Amino acid sequence: MKQKISFVGSLFHHPKLIILDEPFTAMDKESTLAALDHLDKHKALGGSLIFSSHQENVIKEMTDSKIFLKDGKIIH
């Protein structure tokens, strides 16, 4: 629940940039899909996202560019 509230709060003021750390980790599938929809709309309106995730399917779907880290170093 805390994760959902934090996520909704990040969108409330329509910021140009949203930074999220593992935003979907504690969310169920339905909540994740709703969050992805909101983030997609944010991007469509010209907003930017920076987020960390271990979920490769989300990374592929949501990103225009990616940076992969291993042991704190950029590997891709």
UniProtKB/TrEMBL annotation:
<protein>
    <submittedName>
        <fullName>Uncharacterized protein</fullName>
    </submittedName>
</protein>
<keyword id="KW-0813">Transport</keyword>
<dbReference type="GO" id="GO:0005524">
    <property type="term" value="F:ATP binding"/>
</dbReference>
<dbReference type="InterPro" id="IPR027417">
    <property type="entry name" value="P-loop_NTPase"/>
</dbReference>
<keyword id="KW-0547">Nucleotide-binding</keyword>
<dbReference type="InterPro" id="IPR051782">
    <property type="entry name" value="ABC_Transporter_VariousFunc"/>
</dbReference>
<keyword id="KW-0067">ATP-binding</keyword>
